[in-house]
Amino acid sequence: MDIILENIGKSYKQLKALEHISFEIRPGELFGLIGPDGAGKTTLFRILTTLLVQDKGHASVAGYDVLKQYREIRKCVGYMPGRFSLYQDLTVEENLSFFAAVFGATITENYDLIKDIYVQIEPFKDRRAGKLSGGMKQKLALCCALIHRPKVLFLDEPTTGVDPVSRKEFWEMLKHLQEKGITILVSTPYMDEAELCDRIALITEGKILQINKPQTIVDSFPRKIYKVRTSDTYRLIQDLKAYPKTHSAYPFGEYLHFIGNGEHFKGDDLIHFLEGKDHLQIEVFETKATIEDSFMDLSRQTVRNV
Amino acid sequence: MKRENIITVENLTKTFGDFTAVDHISFEVGKGEIFGFLGANGAGKTTAMKMLIGISRPSQGKAQVAGFNVLTHPEKVKLNIGYMSQRFSLYNDLTIKENIIFFGGIYGLSPAILKAKSRTLIQELGLQGMADSLVGSLPLGWKQKVAFSVAMLHDPKIIFLDEPTGGVDPITRRQFWEMIYREANRGVTIFVTTHYMDEAEYCDRVSIMVAGKIEALDTPKNLKQHYQVDSMNQVFLKLARSGQ
User: Fold this and answer.
1) CA A292 centroid distance within chain
2) Which chain A positions have a beta carbon within 8 Å of B195's beta carbon?
3) Which of A132, A143, A279, B135 is the most exposed place for a label (fewest CB within 10 A)?
4) 3-state DSSP call for residue A112?
5) Average pLDDT over residues B197-219
6) Considering only CA atoms, which of A204, A155, A199, A206 is closest in space to residue A177?
7) Which residues contact A139 (CB under 8 A, 6 or more apart)?
């Protein structure tokens, strides 16, 4: 096992940032930590990269304990924290040289690892990092996290605030890195990115909701979900809120995802209800669950924000 | 029936030296519309939006927002719009109540009106026990919901939302959009940028900027039909990629 967490807990005064966190990540896995702001993702990363000491529990990375052998861990992990963390006043090339030197490596010795990414920013190698676009900053930060050939890569929300094209490209880069044998732990609030991971942990308010392969999580969703649409979305939302047979009804892009109360609920019941409310162009059909549906259903059970 | 336009943009341009960030864009947004303003990072969205909210001078062209010319009356524009973003919404070191009083005061609301609005806002969001809590202690999703309400305190005709739901949990994200729907239903115009493509689907019309120009502007349905894809995510990938 490359990363092991056993009953990790961390509090900041009154706030329980993490509670009873236990899981393991296998070598070479692309593992996703999926959850919104405030879930505890960054706290967890800081504990694993030995920047923060936990209150309870044990953790180890690449076989080294985070407390007793933190120096060893720091030599063999790469870390890309949430906010841009490089030196704004140094150029692309200067940043890379700096991080290589700090880790006792050279750019050339590990260039094969970063080459595919670096060629995209190489035309700008004399530009100061602070003047790069968001997507380029991301690529540079990734190169600097890889320059010493780490065994484990920690990426804390690398795609937050980034447009869908750059996000897609970033994940393609991660898949290539995985092929080179690096264990990767990524956190993200984007539920659709969860599907790109080997396994994921859904986390909210310091607790883990579920850990599994993304496909298994959606396949085992316990209820039927109906996609619903009518010509008046706003009225549809209001009417479904007032409908006694509604378990949940949330907008999901073009359609609402509707879950009815009880096992015996039928789609026809919903259609009749909507016809009774004079909705037009009614569409109701069953659909498969997504990670987002799973996350929302699981977090409703544990959290009070319903 | 001709709809009243809340935003009219004609050949709006912004240059920085010999770099053209916004390249002669033209469009209109009608009253009560939910208008999605999308584009890849670096496409010119933020620069364009800054001109529309009166904090950046156009290099060429014109824009009218909430009845005022952004070039000649930027201060009037600012007074008549609402604005919130992901990066900044409220002051973390002030309580919810203090933020309401502060922003309400800036918008020129009288203490009596502010008091009443404050009560309504807190009630509608179910924050009765938390009015004296520091905003910094709220989870992000709650902060954004409060920020939205605060941006609406002075009943503006239009509200500009700059990636308001980034990082927010999926349930609160949708509650936020329900608030948006409610305001749009009341006739408020919503101008929103987002990187969540499912949110693009909630818009009446969407524009997509690529390299300073508007490369697409239509309803989500028409855009999907035109590009023969199933989702706004795929429309975006097809279009935005072409600019890179």
Assistant:
1) 12
2) 161-164, 167
3) A279
4) helix
5) 94
6) A155
7) A117, A118, A120, A121, A173
Name chain B contacts of A250, Cβ cutoff 8 Å. Answer: 171, 174
Cβ atoms within 10 Å of A15's Cβ, excluding its own: 13
Q: What are the φ/ψ torsions at residue A235 (nearest 5 degrees)? A: -65, -35
Fold designation for A222-288:
Alpha-Beta Plaits (3.30.70)
The residue among A124, A123, A122, A126 whose CA lies nearest residue A111 is A122
A38 to B139: CB separation less than 8 angstroms, yes or no: yes
Crossing angle of helices B170-185/B140-151, nearest 10°?
A: 10
CB B178 within 8 A of CB A240: no
Of A35, A161, A166, the CB nearest to B166: A161
Query: Is A165–B184 a contact, with Cβ atoms under 8 angstroms apart?
Result: no
What does chain B come to in residues? Answer: 244
- Give me the total of CB pairs closer than 8 Å, taking one residue from chain A and one from chain B: 97
CB A60 within 8 A of CB A47: no
Distance from C-alpha of A29 to C-alpha of B176, rounded to nearest angstrom: 35
Q: Does domain A3-218 have CATH number 3.40.50.300?
A: yes
CA A286 → CA A255, A291, B98, B100, distances in Å? 12, 16, 47, 44
Report yes or no: B166 at the A interface, CB cutoff 8 Å.
yes
Which residue out of A15, A137, A162, A165 would a mutagenesis test of the B interface target, given it has the greatest number of B Cβ atoms within 10 Å? A165
Task: Identify any residues that bridge with B95 across adjacent strands, giving them in sequence order.
Answer: B134
With tokens 């303003």, the residue in question is B37
- Is the per-residue pLDDT at A108 higher than 80? yes
Name the interface residues of A facing B (CB cutoff 8 Å). Answer: 35-39, 133-135, 157, 160-168, 189, 191, 204, 233-234, 237, 250-254, 292, 295-296, 299-300, 305-306
Of B40, B163, B170, the CB nearest to A166: B40
What residues of B are in contact with residue A237 (Cβ under 8 Å)?
A: 178, 181
Give the start-to-end residue ranges of the domains of chain A: 3-218, 222-288
How close A65 gets to chain B, by Cα (Å)? 31
Residues A147 and A112: their CA atoms lie apart, in Å, by: 10
The answer to whether the beta carbons of residues A30 and A175 sit under 8 Å apart is: yes
φ/ψ of residue B93, rounded to 5: -85, -5
Which residues on chain A are in Cβ contact (under 8 Å) with B244? 165
pTM of the predicted structure, to 2 decimals = 0.85
Give Cα B46 distance to the centre of its chain. 11
ipTM: 0.80
DSSP assignment letter at B3? P
Residue B141 is predicted with a pLDDT of: 84
The predicted-structure confidence for A220-259, as pLDDT tens digits, reads as follows 999 999 999 999 888 999 999 999 999 999 999 889 999 9
